[in-house]
Design goal:
By secondary structure, the protein is an alpha/beta fold. The chain has 15 helices and 18 strands. Helix content is 30%, strand content 12%. It has a 10-stranded mixed β-sheet. The protein has a 4-stranded antiparallel β-sheet with strand order 15-16-17-18, with helices on one face. A two-stranded parallel ribbon has the order 3-12. A hairpin with a 2-residue loop joins β13 and β14.
């Protein structure tokens, strides 16, 4: 009879034996076994060198650009009236994807983008901030090591990797100079990083980080600083290794609040928005039809609930709200200009024609966080702790109108009417995972040597998880089984390369779920079911019921056939209950498969934020702010 010690030894041996193939492969990945000969003297020995990893022959440079809080209809590239000449040029020499999607809010979108996996699968159901993460697999805000990023894959495939701007995926507890750094950009595959780790920062006084340490900003606008740094990274690398490709993740804080930009950029828009958001929506809608961005028979949806007709506003309201939009427009045009500096530099060093550029214009729909009257210097935390009436907010904003866009406008964000206008032709806005207005953002694909249909429009369904497999297929790099010795989970996105040179080919991304703090939807083959979450009565603040989408009276799901009704005007839930139940069941399957459970809602978040009086709350770090 075996003793307990013998049984334990046998069990350990069995476990070790089971792990040996994987372990051996891990060692092979990290260090090739020596195949030479070691004798007593050099004459009796044979040396063998391990060749450094090189990217596939002819592999292009890769640039990913992700803007923040830009609605579908804001840029001139997709029918908007805000000038974005750099994006126009890239799209006119590349492709416009009109049916591309994000996760409806920033951190989930970024986690899904970088990993090629759904955001709950990589533990980013909400945020990496302490106030909006929870101790469950889909919600703790900590991307696991078996969900490798595009930067980790490309770096191990012979690329240099750089990131500038907003990262947004480092847990607050780790975001000091003491680390740990495994969930900073440097720990997720980037050779160099320059930007900020949080979700939002002052554009003139950013919470700035370079590589693994906080640094002092130089007083210039953050867009200017990150662009200089991106150009510097590329220039140094190309000087040292001209033939080695690079990956740049360019992710400005723009156009997230605070909307801050020099007057030289906002002044050209003076008077341009005096006609208001109703006129703006009609103009953009007509331009989108003319460009072929939307169907010729499309109908513009009604204004969202609680949004007043522009002509019903007072003179003071119209003056204030028009100024908000002038600054926002200047901010977006300036951001386009800074991207243009990177593009111009690539052209100057003869790298532009050998660079795949993927641009997602917004990590979600236009922001609803400016509430009904807009915000200038009052923080969202203050709004939760001591909410103002609409009249008081309007009065305070009018008194501070000259601060909009300036360094003193520390949380400047436009009012809700402009958010819906920027999302033309859709309803609703950021955070609304049930709505195309929250989840549909434009994509531009640019690669001069590989795109035949220059200026072409693509309507195939896509999602941010698709960009990683798209990049790997286009560069000829296989999805790795291991990264730094850790077996990798499967990629969940679908490469879009199949559609690059075929405008009519059927979509291959056929199913996609969305869930943001209660609001949810499920898409399959052109059909979509959605549920609009309403925070509990009495909730207050920026994320509160006063600016949330009201549920239907019966609190039920809604159903849309996007193949015939792309902007969700006609609810078919009552006329096609069988299809609705089919999609609801599919959502439950996805919830179990991808770690959505438990259903965390805004009520859960607000309870945590409001559980202590402001005076009792500990001082927040810059990262938490």
């Amino acid at each position: 009879m075996k003793t307990k010690r013998q049984k334990l030894a046998a069990a350990l041996l069995l476990a070790a034996t089971a792990l040996m193939p994987a372990y051996a492969q891990n060692i092979t990945q990290q260090q090739q076994p020596f195949k030479g000969v070691v004798g007593k003297t050099s004459a009796e020995s044979k040396e063998v060198w391990t060749n450094p990893v090189k990217a596939p022959v002819g592999a292009p440079n890769v640039v990913w650009i992700l803007l923040d809080d830009v609605g579908f209809g804001a840029s001139s590239t997709f029918g908007g009236v805000i000038n974005t000449p750099t994006f126009d040029s890239l799209a006119n020499n590349g492709l416009r994807y009109t049916n591309f999607h994000t996760a409806a809010i920033c951190a989930p979108t970024r986690a899904a983008l970088l990993t090629g996996r759904n955001h709950h699968s990589v533990h980013e159901g909400g945020f990496s901030h302490t106030w909006a993460s929870f101790g469950y697999p889909g919600w703790d805000g900590r991307i696991p090591s078996d969900k490798g990023t595009i930067a980790e894959i490309l770096r191990e495939s012979g690329y240099n990797t750089f990131a500038v701007g907003k990262y947004g995926l480092t847990p607050d507890q780790d975001a000091t100079d003491a680390g740990p750094f495994d969930r900073w950009p440097s720990g997720k595959g980037f050779d160099h990083f320059f930007g900020f780790l949080g979700s939002q920062t002052d554009q003139y006084k950013p919470d700035l980080v370079e590589d693994n340490a906080h640094v002092k900003p130089d007083g210039r606008h953050l867009n200017d600083q990150i662009t200089d740094k991106a150009i510097s990274f590329i220039g140094r690398q190309k000087k040292a290794a001209p033939d080695k490709p690079f990956f740049l993740y360019y992710s400005p804080g723009a156009t997230h609040a605070p909307h801050q930009v020099a007057a030289s950029w906002s002044d050209p828009y003076k008077g341009k928005f005096d006609g208001g958001w109703d006129v703006f929506r009609e103009q953009v809608f007509a331009r989108q039809k003319k460009q072929g961005i939307i169907p010729a028979n499309a109908v513009l949806p009604e204004r969202n609930p609680n949004i007043k007709a522009w002509n019903s506003l007072s003179a003071d309201e119209r003056k204030l709200y028009a100024r908000f939009m002038e600054v926002y427009a200047g901010y977006l045009t300036y951001t386009d200009h800074e991207v243009g500096r990177v593009v111009s530099y690539l052209k100057e060093i003869n790298q532009l024609d050998n660079t795949l550029i993927l641009i997602v214009i917004g990590d979600n729909g236009a922001s609803k966080e400016g509430a009904l009257s807009g915000v200038i210097a009052r923080s969202s935390v203050a709004a939760v702790a001591a909410p103002q009436s609409e009249a008081d907010q309007l009065k305070n904003n009018l008194a501070q109108i000259d601060k909009i866009g300036t360094p003193e406008g520390t949380n400047a964000n436009y009012p809700l009417g402009w958010a819906q206008a920027a999302n033309t032709p859709f309803k609703y806005w950021k955070q609304d995972a049930q709505s195309e207005g929250g989840t549909r953002n434009p994509l531009i694909v640019f690669y001069p040597k590989g795109i035949k249909d220059k200026g072409g429009i693509r309507n195939q369904y896509g999602h941010v998880i698709d960009l990683l497999p798209t990049t790997l297929e286009f560069t000829g790099i296989k999805t790795p089984e291991f990264i730094r010795g850790i077996r990798q989970d499967s990629i969940q996105g679908t490469s879009l390369v199949y559609s690059f040179n075929d405008a009519k080919i059927a979509s291959r991304h056929r199913v996609q779920y969305y869930y943001i703090f209660g609001s949810r939807s499920i898409y399959k083959d052109g059909w979509k079911a959605g549920f609009a979450f309403q925070p509990a009565s009495g909730s207050t603040g920026t994320f509160a019921s006063t600016i949330s989408v009201p549920n239907p009276a019966n609190n039920d799901w809604q159903l849309y056939n996007l193949n015939e009704d792309f902007n969700e005007r006609i609810d078919l839930a009552k006329t096609n209950p069988k299809k609705l139940e089919e999609l609801k069941a599919l959502f439950e399957e996805q919830a179990k498969k991808y770690n959505i459970y438990p259903y965390i809602t805004w009520d859960d978040v607000l309870k945590g934020r409001l559980s202590q009086r402001p005076a009792e709350q500990p001082e927040k770090s810059e990262a938490e702010k």
